[in-house]
């Protein structure tokens, strides 16, 4: 929701700028690793931790890992909150979804806790022993600091419009009503968002990207924004999305602080080896690229090991010949 601002609220004197900058530098000096990391060793050697106000675009084609990556980072940050054992607990992480029912997200979370493959749970192939583990996992999920904004199958008759204005209002309500502040927000995903403006589709997506950046600043935390890549990338030999490949928008090139892209070669390739890299194409190979990083290095890519059924992602070491 947009409020009328007084000019003084957005004007900073030279003295205030210097003071605020020095305070932020002291914060980073005290804890250089503060912020949200990817929790993937090879990436964290290069990717600067996500800081409050950062917009990080996660780009991929459908079923190529953007949602899995955001959920993985979200869960790792939730574990950090739990491990702090702070009293009172005031930090949470938030997953906003336009694509998946809340019940299905919960099932995926439980699969991650139990290590029972999610496809088995979705098909209802559950034994008595499985059920005991699922009940324990459901309790763990119930006390996890992972909040969800979206739509439920059970509440199908109550489906308010999920515009970015309404999402921001919901986040502010959580903070005011429960005294909880998000340290990370994930938006899944840009092209599925309900627009706040009536205009041509391209300008609607452009506006939603701006609102995602505004949300990161307004909530004082990093925002991960899932973004669908253009379909024509499958015609390339190297199919890792580039920074300019966001479907229906080029605004991410200007607005995002970081752009990470993902490619699941098993979905597109017919060979056993990934081009000239010599990397075997398996069910667990995912390629990650760092397309943009404000104030840091970019233009690199990494092979990752993903287990999508339990949402685990890790580094994959390259041999000398593959480097």
Description of the structure:
This protein has about 325 residues and is of the alpha/beta class. The chain has a single domain, classed as P-loop containing nucleotide triphosphate hydrolases (Rossmann fold, 3-Layer(aba) Sandwich). About 35% of the residues lie in helices and about 20% in strands. The protein has a nine-stranded mixed beta sheet, with helices on both faces. Strands 7-8 form a two-stranded antiparallel ribbon. Helix 8 links the parallel strand 4 and strand 5. Helix 4 crosses helix 6 and helix 7 runs parallel beside helix 8. The chain is globular, with a radius of gyration of 20 Å. The model has no long low-confidence stretch (mean pLDDT about 90).
Low-confidence stretches: none
CATH architectural arrangement:
3-Layer(aba) Sandwich
Mean pLDDT across all amino acids: 91
Largest sheet: 9 strands, mixed
Shape label: globular
Number of helices: 9
Output the strand order for the largest sheet: 3-2-4-5-1-6-9-10-11
Number of domains: 1
CATH superfamily: P-loop containing nucleotide triphosphate hydrolases
Helix content: 25-40%
How many DSSP-defined strands?
A: 11
Strand % is 15-25%
Helix/sheet category: alpha/beta
Give me the oligomer status: single chain
| Rg, Å, rounded | 20 Å
CATH class bucket: Alpha Beta
Cα distance spanning the termini: 49 Å
Q: Which sequence of SSEs, written as H and E, runs from N to C?
A: HHEHEHHHEHEHEHEEEEEE
